[in-house]
Structure prediction request, 947 residues.
Amino acid sequence: MGSLTISNVTKTFGSTEVLKGINIDIADGEFLILVGPSGCGKSTLMNTIAGLEDVSSGQLLLANEDVTDRSPKDRDIAMVFQSYALYPTMNVARNISFGLEMRGVPKAERDRKVEEVSTLLQINHLLDRKPSQLSGGQRQRVAMGRALARSPRVYLFDEPLSNLDAKLRVEMRTEIKKLHKRLGTTIVYVTHDQIEAMTLADRIAVMKDGLVQQLGTPNEIYDDPANQFVAGFMGSPPMNFVPCEVAEDGSIAIRNRGAVVSLKVPQSDHLKGQDVRKVILGLRPEMITEPKPERSGEWIVNMTMDFDVTEPMGADTIAIGEWNDVEVLARLSPEAGLSAGENTSVQVDLSKACLFDPKSGERVR
Amino acid sequence: MTQNAHKRSGIADLLEAWLPKIILAPTTLAMIVCMYGFILWTGALSFTKSRMLPQWEFVGFLQFEKLFANPRWDVALSNLVVFGFLFIAISLLIGLLLAIFLDQKIRGEGAIRTIYLYPMAVSFVVTGTAWKWILNPGLGIEKLVRDFGFTDFEFRWLVDQEMAIYTIVIAAVWQSSGFVMAMFLAGLRGVDDSLVKAAQIDGANAWQSYWHVILPILRPVFFSAIVILSHIAIKSFDLVQALTGGGPGYASDLPANFMYTFAFNRAQMGIGAASAMIMLFGVLAILVPYLYSELRGSNRG
Amino acid sequence: MAIGRIGIYALLLAFAAVYLMPLYVMVMTSLKDIEEIRQGNLLSLPESPTFYAWVKAWGSACTGSECEGLAPFFFNSIRIVVPAVLISTLIGALNGYVLAKWKFRGSELLFGALLFGCFIPFQVILLPMARLLATLGLANTVTGLVLVHVIYGIAFTTLFFRNFYVSVPNELVKAAQLDGANFFQIFRHIFLPISVPIFTVTIIWQFTQIWNDFLFGVVYSGPGTQPITVALNNLVNTSVGGKEYNVDMAAALIAALPTLVVYVLAGKYFVRGLTAGAVKG
Prediction:
């Protein structure tokens, strides 16, 4: 019903290629998030899905119908804009029903829809107000109401929460998740906030420079990144990247406090025979913790480190140390009573360690 | 839900996609024909020996030679220089002065501004008619000052060959200086307060802070005002017709009046066209460098 | 510095007096009879004010070979100004809408070319336009003058509307497109409702420009179709049996009244129009 297939879509503006060949299959009812840094093309992709921009090549299929050449109003898609784009001279009720009005829906039906939608979003006491008389959060709901009233097959959300303050953002995030559960409609959502992406998505498409770097579930993206960019983009504080040399037996060398330690990683066996000399070790800060005696296993390594700086964050303390002349972050529990300085005991969990090729940034498996 | 319900309904959607261009088409046509086309036509005409009707017999630069050999054109051009220079300089001075004074938190500023600007709301013909009466030799200013006791006072500029052009300056400045004031006032209001305060702390008095700090910031406004005033000066036709009729004789003629007289009253289209082309080049000579520097500036800044 | 403040006010008021003086003189002179004008001076008050000059200026003064006063020409001007203002404003609004929100390749160039045309001295188009009007059978007609004013007014009206509409957020247009509105529906429901200020500025600007025009009037009108500015000039330069300065002044005031009234009532929109049109250009 609301499945969306993006097939080899490219988009060129003048001489710049903004989208270089996007392939994404979105299932009916899926919540897909496009995430990436500014300029990666995520907003352009949204606009092509909506029909507000033409594709330079490629195809867009909505429920297996080819909509590539259809005008926006014929695609049965609704969009919530970052700036809400509410019509300033119309009251809330008309803002919500404008789309229905343009489609010739009779007044009684329109009123019914406005009633239904505004009750759902708890804005029915605002129906007579103009957008300038509403708060940011209220405007956001009206923008959503406008989209909901159309009962489209796909919702597009373009950074809808970035204009809200932090507290409101968390509230609205939950609301959107609940809405999706209730409606079951396909949602394509753009954000630059990776926490939003991780909490809301069924699947995430990480984009950079006009290409999808990886498409997967939040867990896949987090634990099994396809390349160094994805690994570094998702997760806060970001993953540690340490350039290492690979020994003949597949182990990697870490120079810690002047002494060289040989570490075996899950990929070591596979590396043994290969001609790989240099890799980048990717290890998330939460994999370097205070010693936890209850944890053990072939990938758990105990060592001592020197930490220069600590940043207490309340629930954790981030400590900054050094391996191979590169800054390394560790996540320590404040209750363990450790402070910055020398000779701090830590436990390193290498079970989820990732290795990346230093030149291409691709995963080395 | 059939496929056809959503298919682009050919003609309607095609029309919609072309709508922006269709809307602009009449204007584009008018512009191409009535602006650029006409300029080319007049230009071509200036190279022919047309008199009462266009005659497409090309005579090279003959009309331009005749033009510049014409003593009346000479007078018109030198009048334009004199008038233009005085008009622009005095309007700038008065406009700036009034703007600076008005910027000093004046009570009743709105009313005063309204008074300074109302001359722009009337036609140059009305202005010319009014000043023609005010400067009337015998019953105008001359009589007024004499009635105040200066019985030997004379003011006959309007009928004086040498001085007639200056009457045009007076009337034109009266009409346009309010506008310059408005431009400078807007500019002054845009100057950051903290700059003036910094100058004061640095020990500058009012005069110095204006001269060294504020006026340099107003440079763009100066240039805009000069371009606009030059444009008004070059186009000045109505005022001359109403105030002096170009007289006495043709002593206060300006190029625009020359063109009208020769093209329409004297049936000398060729010369008229030539004079029009010279006027165009005059405007371009000021406009093009200005636009060029504006574009350069905005690309850099 | 109190003395300084007094000096400032003194200067400002002195200039105000200078700017007002011609208006004062015109009014005073128009209310005197000819004898008083000769006896008194510019600033003297009329001893026995009379509307003789006004009545004559309106109904029986000679403007060349006719002596019908300014009345018929006043109405000529109205017949010229009203359609010209309305048409040029409407075209400017649609043009501005397209140039602001429906850009296409070459549209900016077109805008630049249009703008450039604002600055040409009209002397270069006077002759060919006369031929065009003659060819269309519109020489010396009111319709011809309306056409001329519309053609040469479009550049300004387009500029005003385009600069105004550019500030409308693009996302508003996108939202309306998704809502299913077409080109004209978006204009009608989104742009028109917010356009009152710019319509006001444009209409006042165009009204003032066209009412006060003399050049086009004198070149393209004929007997019976002249606008009031041309008639005024003729009146003042026709001295049938001695100059009647009071009639001249009354006539000038009649010609100036409409734009003055508009200025007084809606002055701030006028100023906005001046600076918007000039500074941007």
